[in-house]
Amino acid sequence: MKRVEFSFVYQDKNSSARLGRLKRGNYEIETPSFFPVATQATVKSLSPQELSECGVEGILTNAYHLYLRPGVDIIRHLGGIHKFMHYFGLIITDSGGYQIFSLEGLRRSEDGGVSFTSHIDGSLHFLTPEKVIEIQEAIDSDIWVHLDECLKYPVLFSRARSSLQRTLEWARRSWSKFQRLKETKQMGQMLLGVIQGATYPDLRKQAVEEMLKIGFRHFSLGGLSVGEPFDLRYNIVSKTIAELPSSSLRYLMGVGKPADILEAVECGIDLFDCILPTRLGRSGTAFTSKGRLIIRDARFRRDESPVDRNCSCFVCQNFSRAYLRHLINAQEILAARLLSYHNVFWYENFMSNMREAIKNDSFIKFKKEFLDEYHNQV
Amino acid sequence: MKRVEFSFVYQDKNSSARLGRLKRGNYEIETPSFFPVATQATVKSLSPQELSECGVEGILTNAYHLYLRPGVDIIRHLGGIHKFMHYFGLIITDSGGYQIFSLEGLRRSEDGGVSFTSHIDGSLHFLTPEKVIEIQEAIDSDIWVHLDECLKYPVLFSRARSSLQRTLEWARRSWSKFQRLKETKQMGQMLLGVIQGATYPDLRKQAVEEMLKIGFRHFSLGGLSVGEPFDLRYNIVSKTIAELPSSSLRYLMGVGKPADILEAVECGIDLFDCILPTRLGRSGTAFTSKGRLIIRDARFRRDESPVDRNCSCFVCQNFSRAYLRHLINAQEILAARLLSYHNVFWYENFMSNMREAIKNDSFIKFKKEFLDEYHNQV
What we know:
2 copies of one chain form a homodimer.
Chain A lengths: L3 E8 L6 E7 L2 E5 L1 E4 L11 H6 L4 E5 H6 L3 H6 L3 H5 L4 E5 L2 H5 L5 E4 L2 E5 L6 E4 L1 H11 L3 E3 L11 H28 L5 E6 L5 H14 L4 E3 L8 H14 L6 E3 L5 H10 L3 E4 L1 H7 L2 E4 L2 E4 L19 H5 L2 H9 L3 H27 L3 H11 L5
């Protein structure tokens, strides 16, 4: 496996927005970048070839989901996740901590790890931090995330503090397992450290210090976008980033809406993933430069225009809103496909324009103009 | 609209299998040909571009379905069915007679036409033969089918005879409406006559004679594949074809399985449509040279090989049975897409091989060899 590396490239002169480079061997991508979600080893409704057409350079899949189905022995047997999916861009695996901690009443967290009941067949499982590293080694993704404890918002300081201690302990064990694997195998993967600490700046600061001491150099910001207000979220993001070295990759997991991404990039975030473009695509909603359009609406029944006049994607070049609305109404799979395609293309184009703005030190102007046209939709 | 024409080209020296040419202006296709079904203005799960990749040269859509949803005024407003779907191969519209007559208890047939309750919203409708022609004119498909009365198998001779009289009367009114439209508009469409008569050779013979008298020159064989035994079906097909001029296009609607297609081509059928490749694709079954494979089966969970080693389609070049099985199991849309794609490609390749065999006067040999390898699956 070729070495996965991140480097900081350029800082916008008028904000904390920045350009970076994420690479695996000769495969290089520019950040800020948006990765669509492929929970079950497929970006829902899209083929790997279409992802490339849309400008996608990496995706996020889920260790927990793949561990349960199809099982990691199968993915290993098939030659790893890239070959299994026939997708050769960057692949991050989320540990699945978030999914496990959503299984309210079906899981129990203890110091050793977390036990839970499968959402698929009710079977019982026990995952330790070490096991989660082994799972990702079998999956053979490029960028790994260790097991952490995920909290909801709001949460008491004392609860957040004790949970952080557990996450830090799990991070330590994960790092140590990761290093042992590296010693025995030729491995170039990157293991991200998850910064927890809820909405408490002191805890976030402590988390960063401890994680750096353990040895982590690249990070994801966890425990955000779990119900907290917009301003509080970016207050925490910005304070956490202030503690991180500029050479660190900063990944804001599960975010988000276009306005969220702009705000986070302004704080200095490099990487995003979100189900939004595909989930909304499947339900008949399209992203456009003028805000979201619910193509299912009756007002589009005779509309000959494309989803977004300013979009150069395959869908906007070939199909009308009226046809897409008909497909949605008739519950045709092609509706989900075409709107997911457009939405993913739209997101990648949005990111590309943002990177261009950073290069020109005009991120703030870009953000304002985008939001003005987007009707400040959040 | 450019003129749609059929011509008989070549007869296999050892059977009634034959080559023909179906054209619309400069767009020419060779028969025997298989058209996938696009009931609601989409071949389920596939894009028009993928249809071309699969070798599809024409599709069948449904006047009844499109009349109910999205409504033919919308299709006319959007520039006709080709532009609406962004599909520029040949498009046949089935009248929807078959669908209406399946609405047991929800429809009433009388001499004037047929009244029925919409399967979508319960609204009441009355369709006459003339109205069905007008609907197809609004849809602007290339090849039309008139309203007919469809019977199940088995049916008494007296019932089949009186039903045939009604179909002949409706055919007469349809033809006359079609001619009146042609006089007032520049229209190149072809109207097919539907030959009914159940499993009674005398009625089939009478049907052909009357339809030729009315003026029809190209035909679809209706009222077959409705539950009758295989041998009886091809006995009727073969006797009916014997009555038709060799210059006539012969379309066997709704057929079928590979063994059915071989039998029908041997009788001299030129055109087919069937939901099978896409319906089975969506449920996780693949066509291969060695018979159908239920990819959902647990035995494929670790299988690295493609669906069909002898297939050169995009799916067989890039994905394993194990990955497809995982997608089916996880109920992912991509499973439906990839298996529908493979199946449609496989059908078109099957037809292409068949045409090649007819050119070499070796259809009978081709049929035997195919069925031997296909394990005589019907």
